[in-house]
């Protein structure tokens, strides 16, 4: 679709494709994204097109005509503008049981963690996106429950993007968003509902009540939580960070793990981990010493 909008005053069509994103403005947006979310966007044709295409949508939304106008609005705007900017430039690719071996591993170690740490099992999904990953973790904990009947697993699910976090907290998905979820788990842990004439799948209380959703920025200098976690999932996030940011984030994640707890990263991120306090267990899974 051509990015064309009608000028309400003159009736003329305004073609957003004619707006040029200069390298100078690109760097401003890229540096702001790095400062806010740690996402590294060097000046390449691919990244230039990504930022241009996504900010054009924001220009249309706010009835602006130039990238400079949007920059001024972003600079003077509040948290809502910043949240919108982060959401526009963040890639949220997720599905149920993505990289499924991690959930097989989780199911196998949860009873061991229960024996070691007791009933209260604390897990953290540090990049919850639209929720498929934390709900998969919750389902996995339920599947492990017969081997740890007295366990009370709890999951904190966080994300910097407030828009996707809001969706995740509803636990409601369209049919196309249920990709990767086996039929047995679908009917066991989700119920079909109707809203505005459309059908959706909604997480049942059994898994929904296990999760607490909250905003969190992995770029925070230090991570401060009341208790250590026994399992932390932080998958497919580090690939967007540069090396110094990756090291700092891993250091902070490890500081939040209980000794003997597990850190789970994305398959493509396992080569980024060089930490003396972690022992590799399987692909992209590490145990804190």
Q: What sort of overall outline do the alpha carbons produce when their principal axes are compared?
A: globular
Count of DSSP helices? 10
Q: Let me know the number of strands.
A: 12
Instruction: Give the CATH superfamily of the largest domain.
Output: Vaccinia Virus protein VP39
Low-confidence stretches: 7-13
Describe what is shown at a glance.
The chain is of the alpha/beta class. It has helices spanning 23-37, 45-61, 67-76, 79-89, 101-117, 132-144, 162-170, 183-189, 205-208, 243-255; strands at residues 4-6, 13-15, 120-125, 152-159, 172-173, 190-195, 198-203, 211-215, 229-233, 257-264, 278-282, 285-288.
Q: Mind explaining what this structure looks like?
A:
- It catalyses: L-glutamyl-[protein] + S-adenosyl-L-methionine = [protein]-L-glutamate 5-O-methyl ester + S-adenosyl-L-homocysteine.
- It holds the Pfam family CheR_N.
- Its EC number is 2.1.1.80.
- This protein is of the alpha/beta class and 289 residues long.
- It contains 10 helices and 12 strands.
- The chain has helices at residues 23-37, 45-61, 67-76, 79-89, 101-117, 132-144, 162-170, 183-189, 205-208, 243-255; strands spanning 4-6, 13-15, 120-125, 152-159, 172-173, 190-195, 198-203, 211-215, 229-233, 257-264, 278-282, 285-288.
- α6 links the parallel β3 and β4 (152-159).
- α5 packs across α6.
- The longest helix has 17 residues, at 45-61.
- The protein is globular, with a radius of gyration of 21 Å.
- It starts with a strand and ends with a strand.
């Amino acid at each position: 679709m051509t990015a064309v909008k009608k000028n309400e005053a003159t009736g003329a069509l305004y073609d957003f494709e004619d707006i040029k994103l200069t390298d100078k403005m690109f760097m401003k947006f890229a540096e702001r994204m790095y400062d806010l979310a740690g996402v590294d966007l060097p000046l390449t044709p691919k990244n230039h097109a990504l930022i241009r295409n996504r900010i054009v949508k924001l220009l249309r939304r706010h009835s602006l005509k130039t990238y400079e106008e949007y920059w001024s609005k972003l600079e003077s705007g509040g948290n809502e503008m910043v949240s919108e900017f982060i959401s526009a430039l963040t890639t949220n690719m997720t599905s149920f049981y993505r990289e499924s071996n991690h959930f097989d591993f989780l199911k196998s170690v949860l009873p061991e963690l229960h024996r070691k740490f007791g009933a209260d099992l604390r897990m953290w999904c540090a990049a919850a996106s639209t929720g498929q990953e934390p709900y998969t973790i919750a389902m996995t904990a339920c599947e492990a429950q017969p081997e740890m009947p007295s366990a009370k697993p709890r999951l904190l699910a966080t994300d910097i993007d407030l828009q996707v976090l809001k969706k995740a907290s509803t636990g409601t998905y369209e049919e196309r968003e249920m990709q990767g979820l086996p039929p047995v788990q679908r009917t066991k842990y989700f119920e079909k509902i109707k809203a505005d004439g459309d059908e959706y799948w909604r997480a049942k209380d059994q898994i929904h009540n296990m999760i607490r959703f909250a905003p969190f920025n992995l770029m925070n200098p230090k991570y401060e939580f009341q208790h250590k976690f026994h399992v932390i999932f932080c998958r497919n996030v580090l690939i967007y960070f540069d090396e110094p940011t990756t090291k700092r984030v891993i250091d902070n994640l490890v500081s939040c793990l209980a000794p003997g707890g597990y850190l789970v990263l994305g398959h493509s991120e396992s080569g980024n981990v060089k930490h003396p306090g972690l022992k590799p267990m399987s692909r992209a899974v590490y145990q804190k010493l």
